[in-house]
Design goal:
Elements: H1 6-17, H2 21-27, H3 29-37, H4 51-66, E1 81-82, H5 83-90, H6 102-115, E2 124-127, E3 132-135, H7 137-140, E4 141-144, E5 147-150, H8 152-183, H9 188-197, H10 205-221, E6 224-228, E7 242-246, E8 248-251, E9 264-267, E10 271-276, H11 281-290, E11 296-300, H12 306-321, H13 324-332, E12 334-338, H14 340-352, H15 356-370
Parallel strand pairs: 10-11, 11-12
Antiparallel strand pairs: 1-3, 2-3, 4-5, 6-7, 8-9, 9-10
């Protein structure tokens, strides 16, 4: 695969290995994997950065180089890096202070094997009992043109350059948001066009969730509800303990968090919202089951109509459960479906009410939180 960051990878390899660099790239599964994981380099926040798996490689290769094993020494005798040291180092890197430990423990190896099923080696070696880790030296030493090359230092430089490129692109994204906030009143069409560009099906799921939240928050904000408890009308029909509130939508946590299937919650109605991009309807039923069949509004990253999406969910329920009453129970839990077209309609409403600037501000705040960005 060749993409916008591939020339940067090859430039770094050429700096280290000159005329042998192209053959090294072709012969190294690890370099090809890194190339696959860096395809979003110049796409800012609109595509996944894949830092978790890349940083798992980075910290282990860095530990390898710091031990001098790229130049001399028997790495097979090395006692291994401590998990706590690796994990701490991961979280020191750009965009990573909230990274979890999955990449070091399993996801990186699993994904590597998915891309390179015929490769005899996995990148990360670990002993669970001692919590010690090693990079697989078989993937660090590459044979090319009759010679063996150690690519450890080149890998560190490549991943470091990728992080710098992503940071620059993200800062450009945030800067665009900030600029559009200032010109929103004079040129609202530009701000709206930018927000609409973040609702496209191929945009990163995290950005889609953030933008969906920002739009829906201010779409619901102008709606008012009256509620009360222990309400008993007097002889004139008057009641006490009645409260007037605007609907408020709250984001419950980070995207992809293990939060039981609740992405947003609405106060005071207590509505639950789940954002999804998957077409696998089993995921919808899993979310419903996790909430003990409490009704959920699904915000779906799709341009398909609401009727098409609901029919797809129903057909999935029929296929999975077959019993009519069970299917009806699951379908009753689908409170509402909000697709991309519905979000666009909500954005029109938000624009009419003068909240575009607030939507942009919310996108900035939530993006900085989600992508672990600090000014």
């Amino acid at each position: 695969m060749k993409h916008s960051f591939t020339p940067s990878i090859k430039d770094i390899l050429a700096k280290h290995f000159k005329n042998d660099s192209e053959q090294i790239f072709q012969n190294s599964e690890l370099l090809k994997y890194i190339n696959l994981k860096t395809k979003s380099a110049d796409k800012g926040s609109k595509s996944r950065a894949s830092f978790g798996n890349l940083y798992a490689i980075f910290v282990l290769v860095e530990d390898y180089v710091e031990g001098g094993f790229n130049e001399s020494g028997d790495y097979s005798k090395y006692e291994g890096a401590k998990f706590s040291d690796l994990f701490r180092r991961q979280r020191e890197l750009p965009f990573s202070n909230k990274l979890q430990n999955h990449a070091l423990n399993q996801t990186m190896n699993e994904e590597f094997k998915k891309f390179f099923p015929t490769c005899d080696y996995i990148p990360i070696i670990r002993v669970v009992e001692t919590k010690r880790y090693w990079i697989n030296q078989k993937l660090i030493k590459v044979n090319a043109n009759g010679k063996t090359f150690n690519i450890a230092e080149a890998i560190i430089e490549i991943i470091d350059e990728y992080a710098k490129t992503k940071k620059s692109a993200f800062e450009e994204f945030i800067d665009t948001c900030e600029q559009l906030k200032t010109i929103e009143k004079k040129e609202p069409a530009k701000a709206k066009e930018f927000i609409l560009s973040l609702l496209k099906p191929k945009v990163d799921a995290r950005i889609f969730e953030i933008v969906s939240y920002a739009i829906l928050r201010y779409s619901y904000h102008s709606k008012i509800i009256y509620w009360g408890y222990g309400v008993i009308p007097d002889e004139f029909g008057r009641v006490e303990n009645v409260f007037r509130e605007n609907l408020e939508l709250y984001k419950t946590g980070r995207t992809n968090a293990n939060d039981g299937g609740i992405d947003f919650v609405m106060k005071p109605l207590g509505r639950f919202f789940q954002v999804t991009e998957t077409t696998d309807v089993k995921k919808y039923f899993l979310d419903i089951d996790k909430l003990k069949k409490f009704p959920i509004t699904f915000v779906i990253k799709s341009t398909d109509s609401e009727d098409e999406l609901k029919e797809r969910i129903k057909q999935g329920a029929i296929e999975q459960y077959s019993v009519e009453k069970v299917v009806e129970k699951y379908m009753d839990c689908v409170e509402e479906i909000i697709n991309i077209d519905k979000l666009k309609s909500s954005l029109n409403k938000v624009e009419d009410e003068g909240y575009l600037e607030k939507v942009l501000s919310e996108i900035i705040v939530q993006s900085k939180v989600e992508f672990n960005y600090e000014d």
